Amino acid sequence: xxxxxxxxxxxxxxxxxxxxxxxxxxxxxxxxxxxxxxxxxxxxxxxxxxxxxxxxxxxxxxxxxxxxxxxxxxxxxxxxxxxxxxxxxxxxxxxxxxxxxxxxxxxxxxxxxxxxxxxxxxxxxxxxxxxxxxxxxxxxxxxxxxxxxxxxxxxxxxxxxxxx
Length: 164
Description:
Elements: H1 3-7, H2 31-35, H3 46-57, H4 62-69, H5 73-82, H6 92-102, H7 108-115, H8 119-130, H9 135-141
Helix pairs in contact: 3-4, 4-5, 5-8, 6-7, 6-8
């Protein structure tokens, strides 16, 4: 049985409306304009945030990117956190201690002692734990900061196709 035999007697009874292809091309819209909806929630101006993101995405450290954007390093770390970067100065245990302090389970003095941090580092850790990332800002960046790190062991691992 061929396709012609199968399709015999099939008739189109209605026509399909041409809707075209939905295209969203945001490459023409400058990043500063894409950040405007969250401008009030950023710890710096959108212009500084653009400079910060561009420098950081090009491989600059947070401190170097902050200098390029003419903002304090802690402001840069807060901004990058809001954009989805992991800028917490503490590891998992330290972050748990900060969350315990935020929940009023332990005193600030005990939390600082347990995390072994100074006031500035503790303040940044508190900011990171108490402020959610801005999905709108992450979308506005259009993947500029989500660079997959090179895996030095990638060639040593088996792939699913290697099993057959």
